[in-house]
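Office hours follow-up: a student asked to see two folded examples consecutively, so here they are.
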Amino acid sequence: MAVATGTIGTTGTATEPRTATPVLETRGLSKSFGGVDAVIDVDISVPEHEVRALIGPNGAGKSTFTGLVVGRMEPTRGSVRFDGRDITALAAHERIRLGIAYTFQITSVFAELDVRENVALAVRRAVAGLNLGRRARPRQVRQRVDEALERVGLQARTATLAGDLAYGHQRLLEIAMGLAQAPRLFIMDEPTQGLAPDETERFVALVRELSASTTILLIEHNMPVVMACADRISVLEAGRLLAEGTPAEIRANEAVQAAYLGREVPVDGPDVGAGGSP
C-alpha cells in the first residue's frame, strides 16, 4: 500500500489541514445480485481526518458497500472516488497502491509467519507500491513495524506465530498491518470483534488518535464503540442510506431507532468492550 501522508509515527497531537476534496465519495453506488438489490444509490462523502462509522442491521448492505469501495466487487452502477479521482474501474490492488488500507470481517493474517514478519510484509509491499518496486530499507521496516505493534499493544508478542494468537489478537495484528502502511484511508470491518474489554477501550483511543493523520471508515456492530469513535455516522437499511449525522443526531433519529427494532440507540454503555449488536 502506498504511504500517502507522513509516517506511522504521527502522534495525533496536531491534525493536518483538511482539504476541500473528500477523501472518499460514492455517487449512486449500487449493486445487484441476480436481480436482488444489495446496495441502492448510496451517496456518501467522507472528508479528510474524519472518523465515519457505517452501521445498519444485519443484511443492510454494509459488507457489500465495503466490497465496492475497496474494489473486491464491481458495482452495477454508480461511482467511487478517492481523493477526487474516479477509482470505480480500478482493481483492489491498484486502490491499495493509492493509499487505501482495510481489514476484513474475517481475519486474514499469515498464520505460519510470526507477528513481526506479518507487519514487515505489509510495510515492504507499501514501500514497493509507492516507489515503483524499490525495496524498503531494513531500518525503515523495523521502525514502522515496532511503532505499529506498540500502538496496538502487541510489542511483547513479536515472535509469536500469527496462527497461535487468540482471535482478538489476530484482529489487532491486522490493524497493525494496516497502520504500518500509513494509509490515506483506513477501512476497518468489525475491528473489535473478539477483543477483550480493555483492548476495546485501547482501540477507541487509538482510532481517535489516528484521525489526526488518516481518514477512517469504521464498519462496526458494537454501538458504544461507534458512539465513542465516530465524528459522523451513516446508517444503511435494506441497501439504502437511511440517515447520516453526528452520534447524538443518529441516536435521536426515529427512523434509525425503528430500523434497530424500536430500541433506543445508545450513546455509551457501562463498558465499550461489552460488544453486542443492537
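And the second, which I mentioned at the end of office hours:
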Amino acid sequence: MTHGRPHPGMPTGWFQVGWSYELAVGDVRPLYYFGQHLALWRDAQGAAHLTSGYCPHLGTSLGHLGHVEGAALVCPMHGWQWDGAGRNVGIPYEDSVSPVCLPTWRLREADGFLWAWYAPDGKAPTWEPPRLPEASESRYYAVDADTTRIWSAVDVHPQVIVETSADEPHNPVLHRANPDWRIDSFSSDGVRFETVHRFTFGTRRSRLTPDGPVDSTLTQAYWGIGLGVNWFRGGVTSTFIQTQTPIDDDRIDIRGTVFVERADDSERPTGFAQKWIDMEWLQMNRHLEIWETMRYVADPPFTASEGAPQLALRKWAGQFYESQDRS
C-alpha cells in the first residue's frame, strides 16, 4: 500500500459509485464507501437513490437483502418502507408511519455515471460534476461493460493518482512515451485543475499509428480529487474518464471509461477502437503496480524542470480537505 498521505481524512467532492448500466429498475446494490455501508437502488420510476445500508428500525442490511416496491426500498426483516428522501412511508403492521428517517446521500446521475457527494462535515455540494457530452454523441461507443473497467480495493490515496497528471518525467519511463513529452501549460480555476501535454505519439507505423508518428495533445482536467477527464487528440479522438472513490482511509476503487470513435457500424468495439481501449487498460495497470507499492513524499526534491506543475497541483488540492488551514 501507499505509505503516508497528503492530508488526514478523506477529501470532499463528487465520487463515482457506479455506472448507470449496472443499475436496472428495481435493483438494489450494497456498497461500502467513505467508511460506511450504503445501499444504491433504482425505484420503479427509474430514479436512482443512495442511502444508508442499514434500516433504522433494527439495523437490517438494506443493501444485501432489501427490495424495491414502487418508489420505496423495503426492509426484508419487517417490511418497513423508505422513499428516496429517506422518509418512512409504510409499516405493514401499523396504520401510521415512523418519524425516523433513513439517512440519504446526495446523488447525481448524468451521462451514464452515478456520482455521490461526500463531505466529512455533511455540508451540501458547493459545485456540480461536469457534464460529459461524449456520452450522447453517436460517434462514440456506449458506456457499458465493453468500454468500462474497475480496479477494486486499490491501496493508494486518491490524491496520488491526481498528482500523476502533473508529473511530466514519468511518461517516457513508465508509459514508454517519446522523450519529447512536455507539459505545455497548467492552470487551476476553482475546483478544476488542468494540465496540457504535447508529444509525438508513436515512433513508427503500428496498430495504433498506422500512418506513423503523430503530433498529439493530452489535456487532463480534474474536478476535485475524485473525477478526472483526459482528452486525447492527434491521429485519434478519444476521452478517458478516470475516477477514484475512497473506500476508507487506505483503499479506493478506481474506475475507467473510454470514449473512442467507432471503427465501424457495430455496437461493440472492434478493430482500432478495441486496440485503443486495450492500450488504456495497459497504461492503467502499469500505474497500479507503482501506486500500490510507493511511499508518499511530502516534501520531494523536485528538479527545476519538474516542480512547478506538481507544487501547484498540491496547493490546489488542499482545498478539498477539512483539516486544511485556510488562514
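Two things to take away from it. DSSP finds five helices and 18 strands in the chain. The mean pLDDT is 93.
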